[in-house]
Structures are given as C-alpha cells and as structure tokens.
Amino acid sequence: MTRQITKNQFLSHRIELYQHNRIPGPSCAHWYYIVTEVIKVTLLLWLGFRALSKPVYRSRPQSGNTLFNNLLTEN
User: Origin, by domain of life (predicted)?
Assistant: First the structure.
C-alpha cells in the first residue's frame, strides 16, 4: 500500500530540511513556473508589438470625450 503525500506534508518536509541546514534539490514545480512565465512574457510581447504595428485610421477628428461621443452617436 502506497502512502499519498499531500502538498502541505511535502512543504513541511522541505522546511524541516532547511531548518537543519540541508538544502533539498530543486522542485519540479520550479520548471513549470519558468515555462509558464516564458510563455506569458512571449505572448505579452507578441500581442503588444502586434497592437502597436496596426495603423490607426480615423475618418474625422474627434474632440472631447470620445467614449461619450461614441455612445451618443450609436443611438
């Protein structure tokens, strides 16, 4: 019969190792975090440059609060 180790037990064990000046090996969760951060930064850069590269077209100059003007002209 195998014993299931919960997340809290795993973290408690790692804390005990640090308290006894024994440094445990890196967790595999660290690599998942790195991969997701790299994906996030890549997507943010790609979407940012994509948004900046699109030209902005205006049919006529608008003055004042454009959101308010757009709401008035929709009806």
Answer: Bacteria
